[in-house]
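hey team, just a heads up i'm posting the complex here instead of the shared drive bc the drive is being weird again. everything in one block, sequence lines first with there labels, then the predicted structure for the whole assembly after. its two chains so it's a bit long, scroll down
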Amino acid sequence: MTEPLIFELSKAGRRGTTLPPMDVPEMNLDEMLPPEEIREKPAQFPEVSEVDIVRHFTRLSQLNHGVDTGFYPLGSCTMKYNPKVNEDMARLPGFAHLHPYQQEETVQGALELMYESDKYLSEVTGMNRVTLQPAAGAHGELTGLMIVKKYHTDRGDHKRTKVIVPDSAHGTNPATAAVCGYDTVEVKSNQYGGVDIDALKSAVNDETAALMLTNPNTLGLFDENIEEIAKIVHDAGGLVYYDGANMNAIMGIARPGDMGFDVVHLNLHKTFATPHGGGGPGSGPVGVKDFLVPFLPKPLVELNKEEDKYFLDFDRPKSIGKIKGYYGNFGVVVKAYSYIKGVGGEGLKHASENAVLNANYLMRALSKDYYLPYDQTCMHEFIVTPKPYKDKGVHTLDIAKRLLDFGYHPPTIYFPLIVEEAMMFEPTETESKETLDDFIQCMSAIAKECAEDPEVVTTAPHNTPVGRLDEVTAARKPDLKWEPSN
Amino acid sequence: MNYVPNTDKDRQEMLTAIGMSSMDDLFAHIPDNVKLGRALNLPHGLSELELSRHVQNLSKKNSNLEEFSSFLGAGSYEHFIPSLVNHMLLRSEFYTAYTPYQPEISQGTLQAIYEFQSLICELTGMEVANASMYDVATALAESASLAGGQTRKNKIVVSSTVHPEYRQVMQTYAEAQGLEIIEVGYSGGVTDLAELAEKVSTDIAAVVIQQPNFFGCIEQVEKIGEIAKQNKALYVTAVDPVSLGVLRPPAAYGADIVVGDAQSFGNPISFGGPHVGFFATTKKLMRKMPGRIVGATVDDNGRRGFVLTLQAREQHIRREKATSNICSNQALAALAATITMVTLGKEGLKEMATQCINKAHYTYEQLTRIKGVTGKFNGPFFQEFVVESEKDIETVNKGLLKEKIFGGFPLEKYYPELKNSSLLCVTEVKTKQQLDDLVNAWEGLA
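-- predicted structure starts here --
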């Protein structure tokens, strides 16, 4: 089942929409534009009718699996249910149809929402101020490291050129450090999956700008040495950066600020239930401790208490500057605000508790058929591997593809890199015990197939819209766009 | 609201199954020192009815673009959004999916992105485009990084007619990456070619302009390109995609990298975000491009399918050696843009652009007939233009606000020399009546 390209549905003369007739005197383009700048050949956009378009995109949507379609235990991505009311709130004309350059007195509601969101996210993370400007998690990381850089240079400390990341870190951590002009120093994990304290001690020095850390880490384990880790880095003059990808494990239970972190980024599209949209738009707010507030991007929303008026404060001389146009992905922030308001402080904690419960329940059950490399209480996610079926020639990828046949989205695979053939499951709190039990049965049935009939697994998927795709040819001979035939 | 389906009974059964007796046991291994040990100091939750009421009331504290007649542009544009766009965006198989890592169950997202890339290439005339960027400002910043890496030079020349916020974002990135940004002044509302020629030498990595520029004016793109090429600098342009309905594509004047914001297609302005940047370039630079790219291929039965490709550039494979740290794009906003572009179609795009330019010119003619209002620059423009007022422009805008009109953007904020100058934008969504109302309201200001 494949769908033609929209271009292949085109027929000369069809229209998808029309505009009202021009109601001002019309001039020729060459009366308004230099002749050489006028487009000669129009862009070859398809010519299709409204019903063609609606059916095309409806069919495309049916080729997708989303959280609303079914279970989506993609580790580190927190694919929780996205409440519908939040979608409606972001579409209110009073939010969706605001121009960023309207006079401040005409956007007081939007500024209040941003101001309150800053306060809420600060409380959840144990930070003092939060910027809402970064557009995604990786963008938040970049913002955070720029703040770190500015802090050091502001103190006249120009020696700090290195950022430490554990070998279990998300790929964005070293990539961000590099984009920010830092060299990356990798430290090994210990046998429990945590930061190796001795390795860290020998890695830090007066060139350390920061340590980037996820806690719980990418194995889904809480690093119990976190206070000591933070102290080691602080004693060396470095800062400690919190990758908030795994924040869904600890809301209302522990806070990065209390663990000793100086800078935090959050993923509103993970922890705060805004949809991932097939890969964005996300939002990656960054929180900092007091001493770093001057470096936050500008503007911040402030409240003039005397006049009871919110305003955008651009007068921030030590700020790293602007990191994105305007004020961030405001529409996404509206959804997160609505989520926090809806569930409240107790609801956030309830979410994390149940996320951790679901993960531990699933981990225990799956460990009967799969190898559990770190056998301890996990947080919101965990790792198992198909090691018992290695001699049958079954790999993680095969199990992932086999899950597709049963209507499940697979776990994150081959990550973190420190576990061979890793499968990282994150069930989230919005899945019921029944869903987990069904999934456990399915994983158990696949395990049985691995042992008894491995070929059905290694040749999967068998009933998806397309089969395994030739990614090698895709990369060697890139076909990245439709080519007009004329 | 509570979106957790587990009941107390479920929880007890699950705890028993894992050998625990209470929820607290799940967190027993977290050191007490770092435990919060108190409730979060946040408001209590609300029911959906209370929540909607609260958020709606908050939204009503704003004056929105449906109730007010706005002449603000400056990078965020009001254009017609066909109804079908939102209906398609609300297909939750699209919006509740993640990045398409498993292509077999993500063909919808992947094909839509491939169509987006194709449309952006058609529009710009470029050979390749990526799956989208956060916005045009960050796309420009990434283009500077690419240029620095590609040419092994660290100076970027940027026209001061590029949107001030885009330049600020470029500056922020450049500082972190050790790139130097050199600005070139303007003359008559467009890049000063003499100053440009003076500042561009062979140690420049890229020349960056905007077409139409921040003032709405049409730049001399051919001549700027020649200066860039002569000095082996990459030529980067930020374009308004709607303008390409009437303006020639940047490939035709030799651009190496073309960025822009497709917010104009199907995405509400939303107080400045989410918007959707695009990034298009040549095959030569394809493997240096930041962000996700979708390619067509075949499955094991020879059926056409789509995958994320050229991933050897990206952070999850290359880690510290990646071309960018970008992970997500703006897929759903790109989907809105895709649907809108195909709904407009070949004729509709040209029609939209033609209406914008005509309505803007009509408004310019009418406004500049008012005593004390003059055109600031004399050159050709698309849908935005600058007028200078004898009156204080903030006062003018306050007066217009009383008539439920958002006046233009006061340029003095970013260009101190442009006192009492206002950047106005007129698109196809304005009726002649609204344009005349603006003129009458402005004229009537005491």
